[in-house]
Records
---
Amino acid sequence: MNIKRLFRHLLPPPWLARRAFSPAVMGRIEDAVKQSECLHRGELLVVVEASLDFGPLLRNLSSRARASEIFAELGVWDTAGNSGVLLYINWADRDIEIVADRGISAQVTQEQWETICRCIEQAFREHRFEAGMIEGIRQITNLLTLHFPVTGENPDELGNQPVLL
C-alpha cells in the first residue's frame, strides 16, 4: 500500500471536490453532455469520485480499475448500440480515465482516449477544472461524431447529469 496515496484519499474532506465541482459547474457539465449527445449516438456519463474508500486503497485499486468497476456498476455498458463512454475523474489522485463500450472501442483507440485524459489533467494542474472538463467533453464529442454520427432516432439512455461520488 502506498502511504502517500492513502493520505491523499483519507485526509482531505470530501467537500474539496464539491468546491471545484459546485452545483453550477455540474449543471454546465450536464449541459455540455446534453449538447454532445445531440451530435452522435454515443452515451456519455461523467463521474467525479472525491476519494476512494479504505477497501479499494487497501487492494491498491488503480484509477483505471475503479473506472471499470463504475462503468459496470452504473450500467454504462448497457446501451442498445454498445456506445457507452465513461469519463471518470479520481479527484484525490487527479487521474482521469475514459472507459468505452465495445462498440466504440472498435473504432476509437485507447491512445486517442489517453490524449483527451492528458488534456484534462493538464487543465486540472492549472486549476481550470470546469474548462478542462468542458474541453474533454468537446474532444470526446469530436471522436464520437466522427465514428458514431446520428442516424435516425437517438434516445438518451443514460441521462446527462454528472455523478459526484
---
Amino acid sequence: MRLAVVSSDGENVDLHLGKGRSVYVYDYGDELSFVERRDVEISEDAKHQGGKVIKACSDCDVLIAVQYGFKSKIKAEDADIKLVMDEGPIDEVLERYINHVEFMRK
C-alpha cells in the first residue's frame, strides 16, 4: 500500500490538501518505508488546487491531509485514491491509519 501525507515540514501532517506544496510518500508492506518527497506547484491565492496534489499522487492508494474539499473528494474517487483527514506528527498519523487498516482486516 502506498500512502502520501501533505506536510509543510516533513514532520507533521499540517496542511489542507489544496495547500499541499509538498507531499511525502511512504510504502507499507511488512513495514513502513519512506519513498520520496514530491513538490507540487501550488499558487498561494488560487482556490481548489487539491486536484494538483491528487495528480501528483496518482500512484498512491491513500492521501492524508488535515482537510479537503468536496471537489477534491470527487477527483480522488475518480483517481481511485482514498482521502483521509488527520493531523499531527507524520509517524503518529501513519501509525493510526495502518493500525486501523490492520484492525479492519481482522
---
Amino acid sequence: MSEPQSPTDPSAPVAVATAVERPSAQAPPTVVVQLVQRSGWSRFWSWLGWAGFAFCGLMLLGQAALLSDYFDTSEGIEEKFVSGEQFGSDKVAVITVGGVILEGDGFVKRQIDRVREDENVKAIVVRVDSPGGTVTGSDYMYHHLRKLKEDKGVPLVVSMGAIAASGGYYVAMAVGDEPRSIFAEPTSTTGSIGVIIPHYDFSGLMERFDVKDDSIATHPRKQMLSMTRPMSEDDRQVLQGYIDETFSRFKEIVQAGRPAFRQDPAALDVLATGEIFSAPKAKEHGLIDEIGFLEDAIDRAVELAGLDKSRVRVVKFLPPPSLFSLGGLEVSRATEFDARALLELSTPRAYYLWTSLPPLVRGRP
C-alpha cells in the first residue's frame, strides 16, 4: 500500500505511516496512519530558519561583491559591444567623457587604464558630451588621454555629442596634430574657450537683515572671494592675474590640438572670448574638422589605424553598477546627485565651464 502524500500547507496535520508487525507470513501488513498536528512554535522556527537562510545568502553576495574589487583590475567597469564584427580581433575603443567634470581620477581614468592594458585596441574614439568643469579635472583628463595615445601609438579621434564646450573642448585637444580628427554632430555646441571664477556678493542682503561676517583670517586676501563682502579692486587684480595665467594655458592646449592656430595666434584670440559656436560655425572657424556622428568618427579611426573594417569590433565601457541598480532600481546617471558637489558653492576655484554657476548635479558616463 502506498504512503499518503503530506499536505503542502505547513500548518496542516502531517500523516506519519507506521508499519505494524505482521502476525503471520500469510497476513498482509497493516498500515496505521497517525496525524501529527504542528504547533505554532514549530511553524515559527521553520519560517525563521528560511528567513535566516535568505539573510545569510544576501550577506554572502554582498561580501563577494566587496571582495571582487581586490581581483577586478578594471574596478568594476564592463566592456560592451557597440558595432562591427562581434568577434573581430581588432578593437576600436570608445572612451566616454560625459557630464560636468569635477575630477579626473574617476570613470574616465578607469576607461583609459582598461584600454591601456588591452593589446587588441588599435584605435580610440573619445566621445565628449560635457559643458566642461574644473581646470584641474579637465587638464587631468587631457593629460592622460594624450599619454594613452602616445604610449599605445594608436590614432585618437574625437566625437562631440550635444555639447563639448570649455573644459569639454579642452579635453578634445588630446587629438594632437592628427588630421581630420575632431567630429561634431550637426546640433553640437562647442567653443566657450575661457576661464571663470564664480563670485557672488551677498553683503547687501546681509546688511538688510543685520548679519555681519566676523571671520578671523591670517590676511585680508584669505577672504578675497568671500560672498559676505564686496571685492576690492586690489583683490580683483590679483584674481585677474591668476585667471589670465590659466587662460594662457587653455590657449596653448588649443594650439597643440589645432595646428592652424599655432601659425596664427591672433585668429585664436578672436575666438577665445567664451563665445559658444554651432557645429557649422565651429567648422568654419577651424575649431573642428568635420560634421558627423559617432559612426563617422569610428570610420575615421579605422581608416587612420589602417584596419580591415570587416575584422573590427567597436566597444565601449559601462560604469560599475550602483547600489540602486543592484537592487533593481535604475537611477539615471545623467542626473545623479553628488553631495560632494555642494562644497563647490563655498569653494572658490577656477572653471573651464560653460555656466556662471558651480555644478550641483553632475553626470557619470
---
Amino acid sequence: MTTSSTSSPGEAAQRYAAAVFELALDSGDVDGVEAGFTAIAKLIEGDAALNRAMRSPLYKSEEKAGVLETLCGKLKSPDLVRRAVGVAAMNRRAGDIPAIARAFATRAARHRGATQVTARVAHQVSEAQAAKLESDVSRALGRTVKVQIEVDPALIAGMQLRFGSKLIDASVRTKLNQLTTIMKGM
C-alpha cells in the first residue's frame, strides 16, 4: 500500500486552522480572526466563479494570493487572516479556505465552551431566525452552541443540522428521496 505525500483537504484545513488558532490565541484576537475567516469564506462560497477560480489549477498560486489579498483588504480582515489565506494560496490550498474557516470556527467555539453546529438551510435566514435557531438548539442539546449557517438550495426546504458526527436531516430533498425509494419497491 502506497501513501500519498499530499493530504486531503480536510486534514490540511485542520492543520491550517490549528496553526492559525494558536497564533490567534497568542495575539488575543480569536473572535476577530474567526470573523475575518468567516467573511472571506462566505465571499468565496457565495460567488461561484470565485469559488471555481480558487479551486482551479489553471490559475497560478501568486494570482490567487493577489486576489485574496485584495479581498481581505476590502473586508478589512485582520492581518493574521490576510497572512493565513496568502500562505494557503501560495501552498495551493486556496480552495480549502472555506474548510479552514469552518475548522477555525469549530476550534474557537470549543475554546469558548460552545459546541459548533452547522445548519444547512435551503434559503438565507435572517439574523433573528439564526439567533432563535441557536437558542433552540442550545436548549435541545443542553449546552451552549454556535450555529454556522450554510445555504444549499438543493435541500428545497427544511434543514440539516450537523454537530460532531451526528446529522439530523429534516430536508424536503431527503424526504422526497425516501419516498422515491419506497415507491420503487412497490
